[in-house]
Q: What sequence folds into this?
């Protein structure tokens, strides 16, 4: 039986991305094991949280709402497309929601090509989902109206008229002009594979021509489809219901045992900073910055693992999706083939919690931070090993917020 070379290449590139994920965790350490203290006496700046007077524990009010500081980049001329740009979504929403979608939209717009709605590929061979199984496809298409032409169905394209092109995340117009445009004009169609040379969600020193397109793609195109949104809302409602002693507030912690067990998570950089924190380390951190035993904690680990007992000993109200999800939804969203659903659910719960604690550095942390900044929910506390018996939570505010160096601050101001 003949083998489609595109499938072979796509499989190789997918495996490469999984290897790169481990390397990125290894390289991307949190800023410092002992963050600098920020001045908490002055009034709240744009996007910085302020102290809630009278609240129990280190809870904060949301930061000031930011305004969109970019305009939808409508093309001045009607799009007369002569070719297609195709791509796939892999590895979870931290890849979907920013770089992969953003890069594809930026490339298609520059080339005046038609963008094909992507399929979603899981970690196992043959594990595919339709885009609309996870995301609101009509919202996606409507958001890009006038920016780039989008079609739902993948056209029939022969192998000789299709080139597979690797592009770096946050691709620039210069890279497209020098490395992609000629290939597209020659072949007529391209399939994009985004690679990640580094975890880079920091804003550019200067605005670029593609910023408005990237802002729209990152923050204005992807929303979960109705059933996924319903599950997320029901889980958040349940978390708030069991959080009566903290006024309905809860902490979301990105803590996945399979990631913590990787060798890249066990290493400490030369500067002493870490890329991952264990359940016990997270528990001690939360306790030392003032969270009491009645604090409700959501962890992104899907099902209970014995290592989480160390966190539950400190915070008895610690829950996973397995406990919170409506019974009638578990078969669909919690089985072994539902990893994409699980990652998307985690992404939105962590984006909408009162406090977000990234126990693992990397793209999930960076992209949740971006969505939180865009919505004014800037209470993002980065764990550290605190040598004293207690510390102020403000000392551990994410650098993305304290330094306003996240790309989101290029889009909202």
A:
């Amino acid at each position: 039986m003949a083998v489609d070379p595109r499938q072979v290449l796509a499989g190789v590139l997918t495996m490469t991305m999984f290897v790169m994920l481990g390397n990125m965790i290894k390289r991307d350490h949190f800023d410092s094991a002992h963050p600098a203290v920020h001045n908490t006496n002055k009034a709240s700046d744009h996007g910085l949280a302020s102290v809630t007077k009278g609240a129990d524990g280190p809870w904060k009010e949301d930061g000031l709402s930011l305004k969109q500081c970019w305009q939808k980049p409508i093309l001045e001329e009607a799009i007369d497309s002569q070719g297609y740009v195709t791509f796939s979504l892999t590895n979870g929403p931290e890849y979907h929601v920013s770089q992969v979608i953003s890069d594809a939209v930026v490339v298609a717009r520059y080339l005046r090509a038609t963008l094909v709605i992507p399929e979603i590929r899981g970690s196992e061979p043959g594990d595919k989902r339709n885009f609309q199984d996870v995301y609101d496809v009509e919202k996606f298409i409507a958001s890009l109206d006038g920016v780039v032409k989008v079609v739902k169905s993948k056209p029939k394209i022969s192998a000789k008229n299709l080139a597979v092109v690797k592009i770096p995340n946050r691709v620039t117009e210069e890279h497209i002009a020098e490395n992609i445009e000629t290939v597209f004009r020659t072949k007529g169609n391209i399939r994009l594979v985004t690679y990640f040379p580094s975890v880079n969600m920091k804003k550019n020193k200067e605005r670029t021509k593609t910023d408005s397109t990237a802002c729209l793609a990152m923050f204005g195109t992807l929303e979960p489809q109705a059933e996924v949104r319903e599950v997320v809302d029901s889980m958040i409602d349940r978390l708030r219901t069991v959080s009566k002693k903290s006024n309905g507030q809860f902490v979301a912690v990105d803590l996945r045992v399979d990631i913590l067990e990787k060798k890249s998570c066990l290493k400490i950089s030369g500067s002493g900073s870490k890329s991952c924190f264990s359940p016990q380390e997270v528990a001690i951190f939360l306790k030392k910055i003032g969270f009491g035993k009645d604090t409700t904690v959501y962890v992104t680990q899907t099902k209970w693992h014995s290592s989480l007992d160390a966190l539950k000993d400190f915070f008895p109200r610690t829950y996973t999706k397995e406990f919170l999800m409506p019974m009638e939804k578990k078969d669909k969203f919690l089985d072994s083939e539902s990893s994409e659903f699980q990652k998307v659910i985690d992404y939105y719960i962590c984006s909408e919690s009162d406090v977000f604690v990234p126990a693992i550095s990397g793209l999930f942390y960076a992209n949740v931070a971006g969505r939180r900044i865009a919505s004014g929910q800037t209470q993002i506390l980065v764990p550290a090993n605190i040598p004293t018996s207690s510390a102020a939570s403000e000392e551990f505010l994410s650098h993305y917020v304290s330094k306003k160096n996240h790309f989101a601050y290029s889009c909202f101001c």
